[in-house]
Write a structure and sequence with these properties.
Largest sheet of chain B: 7 strands, mixed
Distance between the termini of chain A: 41 Å
Structural class of chain A: mainly beta
Shape of chain B: globular
Number of helices of chain B: 0
Low-confidence stretches of chain A: none
Mean pLDDT of chain B: 92
Low-confidence stretches of chain B: none
Oligomer: heterodimer
Radius of gyration of chain A: 13 Å
Order of helices and strands of chain A: EEEEEEEEEEE
Strand content of chain B: over 45%
Structural class of chain B: mainly beta
Mean pLDDT of chain A: 93
Largest interface: A-B, 25 and 24 residues
Strand content of chain A: over 45%
Distance between the termini of chain B: 35 Å
Number of helices of chain A: 0
Helix content of chain B: under 10%
Order of helices and strands of chain B: EEEEEEEEEEE
Helix content of chain A: under 10%
């Protein structure tokens, strides 16, 4: 089976950097995704990691360590519009399994 | 733009009255998924199609059925909705069953059961 853990809530200040962690246990591994989901909206794709290391895309970076079953999403220069839930999802031997998401609140 | 479209965005149905949610895609993707997402919870996979091959998750209740008449359309039928079925229903697509491919989501249908 698959188990994905991430913090329930985080708060950070506008302009700051925040790191959202995700740990997972999975049977088979075909990559880890991060999705952003605003309240009442569909998830939108942010990043995909299948090899160890850091993937950078603008203000967003994602890191993966397969041996540790660990990933993080790093958001830089936070903006108010970044207030959303961030879902970690793992592709194993099954379709995507999502974590419960981390609700990020960006405050002035 | 090519996309995944769900109709309606909001659906209210009566307890026990059958309801159908629809999803269409212009991406020509092979795989279509239905997820159920309750408040503050993870999206939970109900089933998926690879072309016409249907795959039901083991813990998906029999109350939930799906149809995919062609590549573009997929339907979720709830035969006898209960109060516990109130949720956001998300349709998604991807290009193949190599699970490393990105899933594209529709806007979701928020179902209320009264």
């Amino acid at each position: 089976g698959q188990n994905i853990d991430q913090p329930t809530e985080m708060t950070a200040t506008e302009g700051a950097i925040v790191q959202i962690n995700c740990t997972y246990q999975t049977s088979g591994f075909n990559g880890l995704f991060w999705y952003q989901q605003h309240a009442g909206e569909a998830p939108t794709f942010l990043s995909y990691n299948v090899l160890d290391g850091l993937e950078e895309k603008g203000r967003f970076s994602s890191f993966l360590s397969r041996s540790k079953g660990y990933s993080y999403l790093l958001l830089k220069e936070l903006q108010m519009k970044d207030s959303a839930s961030y879902l970690c999802a793992v592709a194993g031997n099954t379709p995507l399994v999502f974590g419960k998401g981390t609700r990020l609140s960006v405050i002035a | 733009d090519a996309m995944v479209i769900q109709n309606p965005r909001y659906q209210v149905t009566q307890f026990g009255k059958p309801v159908t949610l629809s999803c269409s895609q212009t991406l020509n993707h092979n795989v279509m998924y239905w997820y159920q997402q309750k408040s503050s919870q993870a999206p939970k996979l109900l089933f998926h199609y690879y072309d016409k091959d249907f795959n039901n998750e083991a813990d998906t209740p029999d109350n939930f059925q799906s149809r995919r008449p062609n590549t573009s359309f997929c339907f979720l039928d709830i035969r006898s909705p209960g109060l516990g079925d109130a949720a956001m229903y998300l349709c998604a697509t991807s290009t193949r069953t190599g699970w490393s491919t990105e899933a594209f989501f529709g806007q979701g249908t928020r179902l209320t059961v009264v």
